Amino acid sequence: MDLKQLTYLVAVADTGSFTAAAQRHHVAQSAVSMAIARLEQRLELKLFERQDRRVRITPEGEVLLTHARRLLQQAERAEREMEELKSLVRGEVRIGIPFMMGSYFFPPILMAFKHRFPGLRIEVDEAGTRDLLSRMATGELDLAILIASDLPAELVGARLVREEMVAVVGQDHPWRAEPSITLETFFEEELALFRQGFYHREHMESLAREAGVTPRIAFESNLIPLHKAVVRQGFAVSTLLRMAIEEDDDLFAVPFTPPIYLELCVAWHRDETLSRANRALRDFLLEQCPA
């Protein structure tokens, strides 16, 4: 049976007439009669009793009528939801964001996106780069903000922002007055760094190896507020993206010589088609962060 047959079944049951059912759906009476006859033939059941010019639904027809109404309602709902998705009234986006970006850069952008598309559900995961790559590989995320130079072959990315990595010191630290410091100078201090699995940590360790030094790690944590507290109290220095301390009056960014920048991109699976909702978020990010 098909939905058209069920539609005519409901119309005949409601109107008690093949003629009225045909008029309701703007078709010939013969089209309704043939659809019902084929349905009865397929089911090997009599669905209507013909009496003079009136038709009455049979008990078997009543059973099918209940299912028909429900199936037609579900079909209508599915069609409506597809139309809503087409116009981005409904849908879901899943994006992964590094901790620093999620806390200090993306909240206003995501709120602006939600304002533009209020019907979309936004699922945001904050994690380290390695964890985000793993979740992209398993399909848990559709989009992720990643280091452009760190993308595996199965992902493709579009550049969003170029952000500087800086040394972070408290107001009493002597570096506060310095225009910049070298990496060698930085690695002589006790450091507060992220745990393994974070690109920020791995990048600093790579720079230390190139400089032929071993970092003196005094605090190891993924909590940015803890990094800041440690630096404020003078127990260590840290390195964060410049944006992470822009609103902290008692923390100071000291550039490296030469300066260190990270290229951040929005990435998606190369061989998979993004949903309309995820494409909308990707394009919105690129619109808000022109490279």
Radius of gyration: 32 Å
Sheet having the most strands? 9 strands, mixed
The helix-and-strand class reads alpha/beta
Which fold name fills CATH's third level, the topology of the largest domain? D-Maltodextrin-Binding Protein, domain 2
* General shape: rod-shaped
Question: Quick one: CATH superfamily of the largest domain?
Answer: Periplasmic binding protein-like II
What is the typical, i.e. mean, pLDDT? 90
- The count of domains is 3
- The poorly predicted ranges are none
| Number of beta strands | 13
User: Beta fraction of the residues?
Assistant: 25-35%
Count of helical stretches: 11
Query: End-to-end distance, in Å?
Result: 55 Å
CATH class of the largest domain: Alpha Beta
What portion of residues is helical?
40-55%
Pfam families: HTH_1, LysR_substrate
Coiled coil: 65-95
Protein name: Transcriptional regulator
Family: Belongs to the LysR transcriptional regulatory family.
Describe this protein's structure.
The structure is a single chain. The protein has 291 residues and is an alpha/beta fold. The protein folds into 3 domains: 3-71, Orthogonal Bundle (Arc Repressor Mutant, subunit A); 84-161 and 264-288, Periplasmic binding protein-like II (D-Maltodextrin-Binding Protein, domain 2), CATH 3.40.190; 162-262, 3-Layer(aba) Sandwich (D-Maltodextrin-Binding Protein, domain 2). Helix content is 44%, strand content 26%. The chain has 11 helices and 13 strands. The strands form 3 sheets. Strands 3, 4, 5, 6, 8, 9, 10, 11 and 13 form a 9-stranded mixed sheet that branches. Strands 1-2 form a two-stranded antiparallel ribbon. A two-stranded parallel ribbon has the order 7-12.
